[in-house]
From TrEMBL:
Residue span, Trichome birefringence-like C-terminal domain: 259-541
Record keyword Acetylation present: no
Positions with biased composition (Polar residues): 98-128, 149-160
Family: Belongs to the PC-esterase family. TBL subfamily.
Residue stretches spanning the membrane: 16-33
Keyword annotations of the record: Membrane, Signal-anchor, Transmembrane, Transmembrane helix
Origin species: Cicer arietinum (Chickpea)
Residue ranges of every copy of the Trichome birefringence-like N-terminal domain listed in the record: 203-256
Record region (Disordered): 61-85, 98-180
Keyword Transmembrane helix: yes
Protein name: Protein trichome birefringence-like 16 isoform X2
Bias-annotated ranges (Basic and acidic residues): 70-85, 134-145
Amino acid sequence: MVRMKAGFNGLKGKEISLISIVLMCATIILWSWEKTPGLTAFLPPQTPLQLSSDHLASSSSVKVLPAPDPHIHVTEHESSMPKKKIADEVEEQDLDFTSQTISAQSSSGESMGESDTGTTSDTEQILSNVPDEEEKHERILEAGKSHGVQISSSLTTSEAKSNEAKGKKNSKQKKPDLIMNTPLKSSSIIGKENWNNATENKACNYAKGKWVPDNNRPLYSGFDCKQWLSGMWACRLMQRTDFAYEKLRWQPKDCQMEEFEGSKFLRRMQDKTLAFVGDSLGRQQYQSLMCMLTGGKETNDVEDVGKEYGLVVAEGSARPSGWAYRFKNTNSTILYYWSASLCDVEPIDVNNPNTDYAMHLDRPPAFLRQFLHRFNVVVLNTGHHWNRGKLNANRWVMHVGGRPNTDRKIAVIWAAKNLTIRSVVSWVDSQLPKYPGLKVFFRTISPRHFFGGEWNTGGSCDNTKPMSVGKEILEEESSDQVAASAVKGTRVKLLDITSLSQLRDEGHISRYSLTAKPGVQDCLHWCLPGVPDTWNELLFAQI
C-alpha cells in the first residue's frame, strides 16, 4: 500500500511538472508572437489609409511618389543639389516641374504695363526666342539646379511597399513627392509673450516652417494703401472675390518670429536707409513694406527724397528708375532702385537713340557703387529677366572685363546669370569691412506658377483655395542653389523665400488684372497684401 501511494504521488508530481512546462511554452510562444516582427507576416494586410475628398480635391493628376535620392547627378556645369523637402499633400499639375514653377530665367516673355505713381511695372514675363539646343539644355539644367524642390513622402507600410517600385520608374522625373503630416498644434503657434528677443535667435532658419491660418492678417488693407500700392497689384480693387490667401501667416519650424510692427521697424531703422535693388518683384517687396509701415493709411509724415539719389524722370523716360521716401519722425529712408539684372548697364553709343546697351556681367550697378556708403540695409534680387527674349528686347549685349563677351560658355544664359550674381555678391562683400553697420541680403528667386502653358500660350494659375496649410518646409538648404552658393563664405546674408512662396500658387494676380488681355494671366507677380509681406517679416526678423 505504501509503495502504491508513493507511485501515485510520483505520477501526480509528473503531471504537475508537465502542466507547468506546457504553460511556460505557451507563454513563450505568445510573448514571441508579440515581440517578433517576422510573425506579423501571418497577419492579414492592413488597409491603406484613406483620405477624405477634401484632401484629394481638385486635380486628377495628383500623384504620390516616393522621395527621390537627396542629390541629383548632373553635368560638369552643375554641382549636386540638395533638394527641398516639403511635408504633407501637394496639389501638382501634370506638368514638368522645372519648366513650370521656376523656369522663368530660361523662359521668354514681355512685360505688362502699369501706370501708378511710383509703381510702374515691367513684368518679368517673356518674349519668345527659340535658343539653340545647347542653350536649351543648359537652361533646363540651371532651372533644376537653382530651384529643385523635393517634397518627401511618408506613407503607411503597405503604401510604401507598393510605391517603391513606382519610385524607381519615376526616379528621373523632377516632380515633387507628397507627404502626409499632422496639423500644427495650437501650442506651437507663436504667442505674443514669446516674441520678445526673437531677433536674437541667430541659429533660426526662417525658411523652414509652414503656413498657418491667422485672423489677424493681413497687416494692412488692400483697399486703403493707394498711396503706395500699384493698382495692378491691389487685388482688392479687382474682380477677385476670394481673399483667403490674405489670412495666412508663416510659422518658422524651430524658432519664433517677431511680430511685425511698423513703429518698431521704423525705430530700428531710425536715422538709417534701407534700399531694395532688383526687378519688379523687388518693387513689390518695396511697396509691401511701405504699406506695412503705414498700416495702409494715408500719411503726411513721409517725404519724397528721390532727388537725393538721382531718382528722377530722365528725358525721354516715362518714369524714374526708382523711388525714395523718408519717414520724418524717425528719419528712416526706404528706397527702391530698378536693376533687373544687377549688372551695370550703359549705352554703347550715347548719341544714338537706337543704341545697344553694354550689360557688364562682372560689374555691379553704378547706382549701388555710388550710394552704397549711404545705406544701412540692402536687399538685392534678380532672376526673371535672365532669358534670351529679355536680353534681345532690351538690346543688352553681354560684356566682361569692359569688352563684349566672346566666351561661348559665359554666353549661355544661366552661366551669365551665375557670373553676375557671384560678381555682385563678391563686390558687396569686399565693401562691407568699410561700413561695419551695413547689412546686405540677397533675396532668393520668387517662383512662378504657370500651369498648362506660358503667359502667352494659355498658362494659368486659377487656384484660389489655399492648399499650403499643413505643408511644411523641412530642408535646411535653400532651393535657390545659385544664390545660396554665391553668398556662402561671405558676409552677405541669404533672404530665403523661394520654397515658402512655392506653396502659395493661389496668391498671384492670375486673370484678375484690370488690364489683362483675354487668355493672359499674371502668375508671376503677387496680390498685395500677400506673400511679399512675409518676405518683409523675415527681413524684419533679421535686422
